[in-house]
Design goal:
The protein is an alpha/beta fold and about 350 residues long. It is built from 15 helices and eight strands. A six-stranded mixed β-sheet has the order 1-8-7-4-5-6, covered by helices on one side.
Length: about 350
């Protein structure tokens, strides 16, 4: 009897071991993305051991030809190890990428170049369509105390309504010029508006002392075909990513996501202004209360553009590892812009204007 019990026990343990070995737990998208990032960084770092000519060829290949935006973003780091003239040319080429994470990385690494190469590149980034690229470049120019940036920063102070951008601009101008005009981000809007007017009044007298520099933005030109997949809205409308009826702004989000809540007012405003020319569709992921919860949330927040539920097929097709993410797809089914993280109305509007909408 004891022998039978022992054999049964051994058999059960053996079965458990086999099941454990064969079982593949569900893959976590965040872990997969972090692993991809780490692998891409290791790949680019390893290039530093190669002769410079081969290193340049490999970096150029990864930056301009890799289908992975994660790899292209990592390749931006490798560019800074090349000679400055080549590095600047490649970083300018990277600004033509549709993926925001590549273009933001350009603004992050530009200060590593010698000043004569870094400053023109940063001034180009300051007039980029993307608020995050702008803000990254403003901070870099502040750290460099770059006097040539002042006319460009003043112009942006006039034109860009983004509150974070305005705050960074006034901080950078104060650091560069030594003028005392300053408001905290927590100050009342009236106080910040008053300080903004002080800067503009100062500029009326000071502008003759500065060279009139007007950098031209480098717009994204690289595109990629949207996945051949159809999204079905909660109202039953079927939207093909490859053949949208009009330009499609696809916002991947969640009712539980703080960054998503941050950009909701901008998306609502965008829909009110451009809804007749652009199809805006929200795709909600990981919703604890399902479609009913999304409907209820949208009703509470006044969201009137169509909504769909995120699916495994769409998550895999777009390699969704987090939200918010927003894609702008043209009527030919090409992804023209892809933003990771929350964006503002100005960023979306400038992108739509580049599509001549």
């Amino acid at each position: 009897m004891r022998k039978s019990v022992l054999l049964v026990g051994v058999a059960m343990v053996a079965v458990a071991v086999v099941v454990r070995l064969l079982y593949k737990p569900p893959e976590d998208a965040h872990e997969r993305h972090h692993a991809e990032e780490a692998e891409a960084v290791q790949t680019i770092d390893a290039l530093s051991q190669l002769p410079l000519a081969e290193q340049e060829a490999r970096v150029r290949h990864y930056l301009l030809e890799s289908p992975s935006k994660t790899v292209r973003a990592a390749a931006v780091e490798g560019v800074t190890r090349l000679d400055p003239a080549t590095a600047r040319a490649l970083l300018e080429a990277a600004l033509r990428d549709y993926a925001a994470e590549v273009r933001v990385r350009v603004a992050e690494v530009a200060p590593r170049l010698p000043r004569e190469y870094a400053v023109p590149l940063l001034l180009t980034c300051v007039v980029d369509h993307d608020a995050q690229v702008r803000q990254t470049a403003i901070t870099a120019l502040q750290n460099l105390r770059e006097r040539r940036a002042v006319p460009v920063l003043i112009q942006l102070l006039r034109d860009d309504a983004n509150e974070t951008t305005q705050h960074l601009l006034m901080g950078a101008l104060r650091a560069i010029t030594g003028q005392p005009f300053y408001a905290r981000f927590t100050d009342p809007p009236e106080k910040r508006a008053q300080v903004r007017q002080q800067w503009l009044a100062w500029w009326q007298k000071a502008q003759r002392s500065y060279e009139d520099i007007r950098p031209q933005p480098i717009h994204p030109q690289r595109t990629v075909a949207a996945p051949d997949i159809v999204v079905q809205t909660l109202e039953g409308e079927r939207v093909s990513l490859r053949q949208p009826p009009k330009p499609l702004l696809l916002n991947l989000w969640g009712t539980w996501c703080a960054g998503c809540q941050e950009e909701l007012p901008d998306l609502i405003a965008l829909h009110r202004k451009y809804g007749d020319r652009v199809l805006i569709v929200g795709v909600a992921f990981d919703e604890p209360e399902g479609a009913a919860g999304v409907r209820r949330f949208c009703a509470q927040k006044g969201i009137q553009y169509p909504q769909a539920m995120g699916t495994k097929a769409l998550a895999e097709a777009l390699d969704v590892h987090g939200v918010p993410q927003t894609l702008l797809i043209d009527t030919q089914g090409s992804i023209r812009f892809w933003w990771d993280g929350a964006r503002d109305l100005g960023t979306f509007e400038r992108a739509l204007q580049l599509l001549r909408l």
